[in-house]
Amino acid sequence: MADVIDDLAAEYRQLDAVLAALTPDQWSAPSGAEGWTVADVVLHLAQSEEAVGVPATTGDGAFLPSTATTVDGAMADLVAAERGAPPDALLARWRKAAFATPDALRAHPPGARLAWVRTSLSPRTLATTRLAEHWAHAQDITVPLGIGYPDTDRLRHIAWLAHRTLPYAFSVAGRPGAAVHCDLTAPDGTHWTFGDPAAPNRITGPAADFCRLGARRLRPEQTALHAEGPDAAEALRLVRNYAA
């Protein structure tokens, strides 16, 4: 896999090109994130990205900055508290935080663990989660506005994250974990595989669908993914690219 921090920087640049071209009406338009405008989505990305620069290297979790009982609730509270800034200020705020992130992550020494949401992560895994979040929210911005946002091989990091966190997804649902092998078709037609090929459960199909499913931008029945095995369909229902 390509260096995830380099790919994170590339994802920022792709999203930045979209944001820089938005009109005032587009900034105030409804996004794909329920109850949020496009401006709200960018505000959320700026707020969460600013937390990456905080040197939180102790504890099992961080960045739950309200009394909300869920991560989504905490993020909604943050956005509600700060919404209303003009687009140029929002874009400048997001750029300042986002474009500082790659160097901030690279600056941590080998073996560092960074407190984040409900756990601690290595800098590279935190980079993967930031890539997944920016890509998912880019869908929330571009799809309702009819703006193209091509899938790239950077989806491999997001697909890896979705597969890697399947045990967490099962545990959140109160279900015992299940071994799953994924054989996914990349945007360029090559195949990406994750997990033990001998696992009793197998998921095949487009990597882009798998990533959108993990981001909860599609439901299983809206994808071209195929599930085989006793727990494969449940894995499709539970897979996620994020903490909640």
Automatic annotation (TrEMBL):
Annotated keywords: Isomerase, Pyruvate
Record flagged with keyword Cell inner membrane: no
Domain spans labelled Mycothiol-dependent maleylpyruvate isomerase metal-binding: 8-141
Pfam families: MDMPI_N
Gene Ontology molecular function: isomerase activity; metal ion binding
InterPro entries named in the record: DinB/YfiT-like, Maleyloyr_isom, MDMPI_metal-binding
Keyword Transport belongs to the record: no
Gene3D superfamilies from the UniProt entry: dinb family like domain
Protein name (record): Maleylpyruvate isomerase family mycothiol-dependent enzyme
